[in-house]
Amino acid sequence: MRFETKIAIVVRDDLATWQKLNVTAFLSGGLVGAYPELPGERYADASGRIYGPLIRQPVLIFAASGDELTRTLKRAAERGLTPSLYTSALFSTGNDSDNRAAVAAVPTDALDLVGLGLHDDRRQIDRIVKGLALHP
Questions:
Q1: Sorted alphabetically, which Pfam families does this protein's record hold (predicted)?
Q2: Other CB atoms closer than 10 Å to residue 40's CB: what's the count?
Q3: Which of 8, 37, 90, 100 has the greatest number of C-beta atoms within 10 Å?
Q4: Which of 96, 128, 77, 97 is nearest to 29 (CA)?
Q5: 3-state secondary structure of 14
């Protein structure tokens, strides 16, 4: 099935594995919160046990340097997208209020980005992530 939209998570390539996984999980959750059409239906197994829904389409994970993340954020802004973001400061905060305060304290050009979550028309996302490689 070919979707008209695309989901891309861009993660800084020099993070520890646990950090990459953490950033990806937070960004995926942020996208689902921002785009109510992303979750699919609940699952049920043959025994009738019910499970939670998953995101309804594939999620592409890209690796990027800090400079590439900054470029990706700029491209997203130029196209009017509102990405989810994760900065290095969020590794040392413990709750959503402190997370927002840590981001609010830094101007856009000085954000130490470690991850971005993007969802939009697939052609728009392709333009925004152009030049990035899928995470190995």
A1: DUF2000
A2: 12
A3: 8
A4: 96
A5: coil
* 67, two tokens: 């400079």
Residue 75 three-state SS: helix
> Structure tokens of 114?
């470690």
Domains: count for the chain: 1
Q: What residues make up the domain containing 44?
A: 5-134
The count of C-alpha atoms lying within 13 angstroms of the C-alpha of 23, restricted to the half-sphere facing its C-beta, is 29
Element (H, E) at 50: strand 50-51
Count of alpha carbons within 13 angstroms of residue 83, beta-carbon side: 31
CATH of the domain at 87: 3.40.1490.10
**pTM over 0.90, yes/no:** yes
Size (the chain), residues: 136
Sign of CA dihedral 11, 16, 22, 25: positive
